[in-house]
Amino acid sequence: MFSSGIDSRQEPSGLAGAMLVPTRFVWPYGGKRVFVTGSFTRWSEHLPMSPVEGCPTVFQAICSLMPGFHQYKFYVDGEWRHDEQQPFMRGNHGIVNTLFLTREPDPMPAILSPGTPGNRMNMDVDIEAFQHVEIRHTNSL
């Protein structure tokens, strides 16, 4: 429907081992009814966007996407729009879509180093005092 000539088909989300990435779409230019659609819905489903609390002219939607390139558009008050402040592409027939690259999250959690704030690895322990308390506690039982 809005393809620009690039193969934007997505694999079904039921693939074994496929990791979906929560992705936030934002339309910061106002409107009354705002939707987002794109290659991730095969351009067939219009996902409603909600106003951000405290910012009634900013709309957002969070979608779980497969890693890779995605094209999308916004449907704002009955008109198709793309976000000119984000990367976009113009297709063979003049159709303009916004582009987004979803990456897999890093599977390895950050390893705490001794200098990391809030890390207990840098606590100083008085071993002699600790052993003394431990011995007294054992003797009192």
UniProtKB/TrEMBL annotation:
Family: Belongs to the 5'-AMP-activated protein kinase beta subunit family.
Gene3D superfamilies linked to this entry: Immunoglobulins
Cellular component GO terms held in the UniProt record: chloroplast; nucleotide-activated protein kinase complex; nucleus
Protein name (Swiss-Prot/TrEMBL): Putative Sucrose nonfermenting 4-like protein
Family annotation (CDD domains): E_set_AMPKbeta_like_N
Domain AMP-activated protein kinase glycogen-binding: 21-104
Native source organism of the sequence: Cocos nucifera
Pfam family, one: AMPK1_CBM
A GO molecular function held by the record: protein kinase binding
GO biological process, one term: signal transduction
Family annotation (InterPro entries): AMPK1_CBM, CRP1_MDG1_kinase, Ig-like_fold, Ig_E-set
